[in-house]
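User: For a benchmark we're assembling, each entry needs the component sequences followed by a predicted structure for the full assembly. Here are entry 17's components. Please fill in the structure.
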Amino acid sequence: MDKKDPYFQDNFDGLVEQSDELVKKAVMGHKKLEKIKNMPVPTLWSQDEFYEKKVVFTGMRQRQLLNAYREVRIKLLKKSQTDNMVVLVSSVTDSCVSSNFSFNLAATFALDPHKTALFVDCNPYSPSAENYVATPIDTGLTQYLTDENIRIENIIYATGVERLRVIPSGGASESAAEIFNSTRMQRFVAEIKERYPDRFIVLDVPSVQQSTEARILSRYCDHALLLVPFGKAVTDEVLAAVDAVGKEKFAGVVFNY
Amino acid sequence: MDKGYLGDILFALKAELIRFRFWCLLLFLLVSFSLLGLGLIWPKHYSTSVVLYADETNIIEPLLKGTAEVTKIDRSEQASEIIYTRSIMLAAAKGAGLLKDGADEAEQDRVIRQLRNGTSVQKEGKISHFMVRYTANDPDRAFEVLNSIVKVFVTDAARKKRDESVSAFNFIDSQVQMYKRQLEAAEDKLKNFNAKNTDGTEDAVSSRISNLRQEIDTIKISIEESAARINTIKKEIGSEGQYLQTKGQLDELKARRIALKGQLEQLLLSYQEGYPDIVSIRSQITDLDSAIDKLQLSGDIYSGSDKVQNPLYEELRKQLSSSEVELRTQNRRMESLKNLLAEEGLRQKRIAENQAQLSDLTRDYDVTKKQYEQMLERKETARLSMTLDIEGQGITYRIQEPASFPLSPSGLKFIHFAVLGPLIGLLFPLGLLIAYVILDPNLRSARILQSQLPSDVELIGSIPHFNTPIGDRLLKKDMIFLVGSSILAMVVYVAVVVFWQLTKN
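Assistant: Structure for entry 17:
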């Protein structure tokens, strides 16, 4: 916090709110770009690190993989009218962990230099965020939701991917379902959504089969995606999962080889 | 099944193969070496065979050629029925030294079952050739047992045939004797009957009767004729006198005078009185007149001296008497004919009565005779076939191709197992994987998932597997290890096979 962090500029927003609407709008537009430009750039991953963490990047050898993610991105954007969108990603069965897909989806959105992405790890049972975060993690989402004193800035971590941030789950909690059901969670989602313009948020939740988190969190999201793993789910399970998430926010299924 | 689906299946197969690669290798090695082990302990079967020829000398066949179809009998079937019988098997087992004389029932059953299992009879080309094969674990035993079986079978067949035809001949012979006796009895009966009844035939009697009737009719007519003649003659006799009257002389003279007078008048019509003829006639007439006067003067017209017997009367009387004799004769004849007719009628009745008995006897005789003749014929045939059998003709079994000593085992050999081992070992895990991929309901294809989702659920994307360089490297390393260990295992495998082939065979 000693360094001049661009996040401090948020404090000045209060002054701007007083001024004229037009001025405000112009300033806001300017600020958006400034904000994105001024996001702190941590040390980026090397190619080997990308491969090691199984994260997509431009110029990777397996182009069809990147294109597949781009396809998903295009379809999601088509469904959504706003710049900001919250996408919930869950897996149909327990045996498949959706975090890699979720992170890659977020990374695909972050490929666009005008957009930022945020990967929120809502899976307290098997946290995956430390895989992607360079710095050690002390607090995460569960701590934030239970402890009023923790600020959002403290749980957002930078990754080796440009314009992509991570909020870790914060470790196992017995009452994850209740915590996610709270109004603080609702406020949290709204806040992170508005924190940056053109922000794309991915909520990675445990599998539908395993828990109720997916059903609870699907209320906060704009779109829900279901991941069907290769050779691990039957059609009935897929249909049951679709019913559990609810049709109104359901965007579609993704088959993951 | 379209191309895309097939591609998906192949892709899934590849993925599962990579996933279960160690298990596949393990299974491959396990199956290969198990089959090799099985080949090592697989019992060897030695089998040897004899081709038998059913030699059928048929004397009827050339005679009947073209007129009647001779039934073709499958000799192999016939032979197998005989060979598998208990008596043959028992004799063969004893002949081969598998059974001692004092063996109990259970032991016999065991050995016979063993023999039956090892023996097979099959057709060999033509219907008269067939092959008997015996398979055992030991070449010596296979050879001995087969020879014993064939020997017992051939001798048994010949003996049985001989016995059969001799007994058949004896039976027919006894039948012939019986029919002969019957025939003789029938003949005697017929002879006796014929001797007693000499009335002749019905036809002869009826023709005789009609002859008699005809004769009677003829005689009746003759009798009538004779009677009529007698009547007529009697009438004649009545009208005719016994003696001719002299009165007739005068009448004669008068008639002559009249005739002369007429002649004279005729002549007078043409001639004068003086015509000599007329003069002569006048004198004649005068003579006649004087004669007549003289007669009239004598007065007795019927003078006794003139009385002569009438010849006609005599004649008539002669005729009458002969006719009467004839009539009497005819009447007598008629009577005797009537008697004869009555006799013939009686005889006819008698013959009709005897006819039924005669036909009965004749029928008996005919039937017995026919049977006897048939039997006699059959007896000759039986004698012929018996002779054929005794001389070793008819159907006999000859050994066409004798048994050879089995030098190498038959059936599955060690080398077959050795070759099939790796092949099946390779196919087995692959087959299991294919079955797993096809039968497992878990989704392995985005295409199938899409086809099974309802229309309102969209398939947004299909994310391929992330191939990281390190993952590729690891996989490569694994594959090298797997292929290397397979090759190593196969080298060991081939070494075992070569060693076994060289030392044990």
